[in-house]
Amino acid sequence: MSSHEQQAQTLVEALPYIQKYTGKTVVIKYGGSAMTSDTLRRSVMTDIVLLTLVGIRVVVVHGGGPEISAMLKMIGHESRFVDGLRYTDATTMDIVQAILCGKVNKDLVAQLNRLGGRAVGLCGLDGQLFQAEQLDEKYGLVGSITTVNPATVQNAIQSGYIPVVSTVAQGVDADTAYNINADTAAAKLAEALGAEKLILLTDVRGLLRDPGDERTLIHVVRTQDVPTLVADGIISGGMIPKMQCCVDAIHSGVERVHILDGRIPHSILIELLSDEGIGTMMKKEETAL
Description:
The chain has 289 residues and is α/β, with parallel strands linked by helices. Helices cover 42% and strands 22% of the residues. It has helices at 3-21, 33-36, 38-53, 65-74, 90-114, 151-158, 182-193, 226-231, 239-251, 267-273; strands spanning 25-30, 57-62, 81-82, 85-86, 119-123, 130-134, 143-148, 162-166, 168-171, 177-179, 197-202, 220-222, 256-261, 280-283.
């Protein structure tokens, strides 16, 4: 098959998926290597613009851990983690807000715009998008989302923009902003928007039966399988809260959740618009009629 025929075949293969998802909302949590590599970042941003142009309503939720750590180091403030979450004191919270809502958010917006998209940056403080209370004193100013007010995101989508959302929340129990885990924020926003899909970009192939062997990728996980997979140690460490986010999103009405390897160029397009699933997809268990 010639390269032209292959290109045509790819487009034909994508058509039913485009028809299925056009007009639907897809929330993409963007972080990890796909964020720090210039090549991968461009690949992700290009995918997002393409999806938008075929009528899919894409919402981007991003983190920015490496940039936050770099700025803290620059000012001589130590980064500390408790149970995998960044311990957030008042100085760290100032940096989180400045870097996430400022530099990282606006850099992503600018890149999407340069690639032909129409992006607008929002943070969880805008329109009280995310409201939160303190998760636990041991984490400092890390929040647990209590309310999502998605109107600002919905207005942006309806106006033809790609909303790019940073995960800082307004405190309801104290006069402070809170740092929010980006996976959790993306899942909560997907629920509030009634999204068709939630995609979590990570630095692993997906859920592996054997962490040392990528050939053991589990392509489909039902929500009812999760407790057994945790008990068997297949879901462990940082993957436990990630999978719990997925379960919560499915139970709240999100149709499908995908954990994708952001290190694979164009992984979003491959997963969404082709017959080849390359990550782990979570769906609700089938119930007997």
